[in-house]
Amino acid sequence: MDAQGPKILAIDDRRDNIIALQAVLSDALPGYRLLTAPDGATGIAIAKAEDPDAILLDIVMPDMDGFDVCRRLKSDERMKDVPVIFLTALGTEQESQAMALDLGAEGFLSKPWNDLELVARLRAMVKLKEANRMQRLAKERLAPPAIAQVATCTDGCETILIVEDEPAVRDLAKQVLALAGYTVITASNGIDALRVCEKHSDKIHLVLTDVVMPEMGGRVFVKQLAKTRPDIKILYMSGYTDDAIDNHGTLDPGTHLIAKPFSLTDLRLKVRNVLDGRE
Question: Which residues pair with 57 in a beta bridge?
Answer without folding.
Answer: 11, 86
